[in-house]
Amino acid sequence: MAHGEHHYYVQVEWTGNRGTGTSGYQSYGRDHAIRAEGKPEIPGSSDPAFRGDAARWNPEDLLVASASACHKLWYLHLCADAGIVVLEYVDHAQGTMRESRGTGQFTGIVLRPRVVIQAGGDAAQAERLHHLAHEKCYIANSVNFPIACEPTIIVAEVS
């Protein structure tokens, strides 16, 4: 694994100018395009509660997705190292943000991964590795709110 400092470069371009810029709060769109070299563009907006487009990704969605994806990547790595064969992994993550005094703050994220491991695998060890994945997750180590993990481990039937 590489050590040291890593840098991430993205471009966020506002595409919501409806012809009059930000001449009024209701006069502009919240749409934007998120780009990084060599990667597909992500269509972004704000949450519909803040005049955004529900069909586009908002920063809150992306934060929850980042926490979920980081945890999953660490978990799969740890399972591979421990000899636990993961066959399926689906997380139904949920983030909670609270608004107060004209601003907002995330108060928590709950990850709910459903993991299927190969027949004969150690389900208890597979569950314990979620705790280690959480300790190693870059996103979980970078935020100022709790990220909980409520995994479900299923051992595949012998076929």
Automatic annotation (TrEMBL):
User: Which Pfam family is one of those matched by this entry?
Assistant: OsmC
In terms of Gene3D superfamilies, this protein maps to: 3.30.300.20
Specify the superkingdom. Bacteria
* Signal sequence annotation: none
Q: What is this protein called?
A: Peroxiredoxin
What organism, scientifically named, is this protein from? Bordetella bronchialis
Q: Tell me the lineage of the source organism.
A: Bacteria, Pseudomonadati, Pseudomonadota, Betaproteobacteria, Burkholderiales
